[in-house]
Design brief:
This protein has one domain. α1 runs antiparallel to α2 and α2 runs antiparallel to α4. By secondary structure, the protein is mainly α. Helix content is about 80%, strand content about 0%.
Length: about 200
């Protein structure tokens, strides 16, 4: 029952992310997030990085459906493998690098830029480590590195959730809020996963 609830919440948040992504179809530079990034939308590499990141990140979230269900891995191992390769290739070669470029231009000054750039680098690194481990048939280590990677992929969702919650509770100034969620959006995810891995290893 718990997993059903988690799947329902995850599906809803993925749907919200899809709605956000579809705001940029057809390609526009004056809507949603890009409306506040007009200082950079004239830069070709920024525009390319933004749209690559926006449209590839949703593929990563969709691939997440197939990666953490033991039942699905047993019944449809081919689907797990193919979706896993999709997740890895998109993360390593598209979503991660484009996220790094966007991080360089992040709002909120140096603190936010460091947070988003570190997020992108770790996301790619964790995913590469997961693929190395499965290539060596180290299944348990592969699962743990994938959990770390996916915890960072979920920052697309948790960052927005923290932003809404902090605005509701504290009404901070926009740039102060952005600096906080730039870190909070992914570090807490990673800490939770590290705790789960630690507890699993103890068992």
């Amino acid at each position: 029952m718990l997993w059903l609830a988690v799947a329902a919440v995850y599906s809803y948040t993925v749907w919200l992310m899809l709605e956000i992504t579809l705001q940029y179809v057809p390609i526009r530079y004056d809507v949603a997030f890009l409306a506040i990034k007009q200082d950079y939308t004239h830069l070709l590499h920024y525009r390319v990085a933004f749209f690559l990141h926006a449209f590839s990140a949703i593929l990563v979230l969709l691939a997440g459906y197939t990666q953490f269900s033991t039942r699905l891995r047993r019944r449809l191992p081919w689907l797990h493998r193919r979706a896993g390769w999709l997740y890895a290739l998109v993360t390593i070669f598209v979503a991660g690098p484009s996220g790094l470029i966007l991080g360089i231009y992040a709002n909120g000054g140096l603190s936010s830029r460091v947070a988003f750039c570190l997020l992108a680098v770790l996301w790619v690194f964790f995913t590469i480590m997961a693929m190395i481990r499965i290539a060596r048939r180290q299944v348990r280590a592969h699962q743990q590195w994938m959990l770390r990677s996916f915890s960072l992929a979920l920052s697309a969702i948790t960052l927005r959730a923290w932003k809404y919650l902090l605005v509701l509770l504290f009404h901070p100034r926009p740039m102060d809020l952005y600096r906080v969620v730039a870190w909070l959006g992914w570090t807490l995810n990673l800490l939770v996963v590290e705790f789960l891995i630690y507890r699993s290893n103890r068992r």
